[in-house]
Design brief:
three-stranded antiparallel β-sheet, alpha+beta, 7 helices, iron ion binding, NIF_FeS_clus_asmbl_NifU_N, iron-sulfur cluster binding
Length: 162
């Protein structure tokens, strides 16, 4: 398995790493198989023209080089975009920005999209805004995954808290 120079660059020096206190939206996505976990935080502000844009975005990721690199890239791709523009970003955009990912690591780009989708979902929900049907379905899928993880690892989680 080989990573591109761009992937290694984002892994070694990730952009926008960290947490935003009191974010307007916070998204979490994980993969039960590989164990990667991504948290993405956003702040939205109105421009002078009254257009809402993603003004600040940060992430915290526990995972492999590809998970960290895709998290870094998604933050670069959405900063300064409207929510609608951000929702149009897909795994291909991330993979192209990294000049490719090994096939076994493509799921990391999907996790990054899911974390972004969850952050936007939370932002729209908090602000009583309409949530696109596709985003609702993604949210439901992610919630089912979180429930499965909790059920599968409930015993381990209770042991680790002691």
């Amino acid at each position: 398995m080989f990573y591109t120079k761009q992937t290694l660059k984002h892994f070694r020096n990730p952009h926008n790493y960290g947490e935003i206190k009191n974010p307007d939206g916070e998204g979490e996505a994980g993969n039960i198989i590989c164990g990667d976990l991504m948290n993405l935080y956003l702040k939205v502000k109105k421009t002078k023209n009254g257009v809402e844009i993603i003004d600040a975005v940060k992430f915290k990721t526990y995972g492999c080089a590809a998970a960290i690199a895709t998290s870094s890239v998604i933050t670069d791709l959405v900063k300064g975009k409207t929510v609608d523009q951000a929702l149009k970003i897909g795994k291909k955009d991330i993979i192209d920005t990294l000049n490719g990912l090994p096939p076994i690591k493509i799921h990391c780009s999907i996790l990054a999209i899911d974390a972004l989708g969850e952050a936007i979902y939370q932002y729209l929900f908090k602000n009583n805004r309409p949530i696109p049907l596709s985003l609702q379905k993604t949210h439901e899928r992610i919630e089912i995954g979180k429930k499965e993880i909790k059920e599968r690892y409930a015993k381990w989680l209770s042991i680790s808290k002691k």
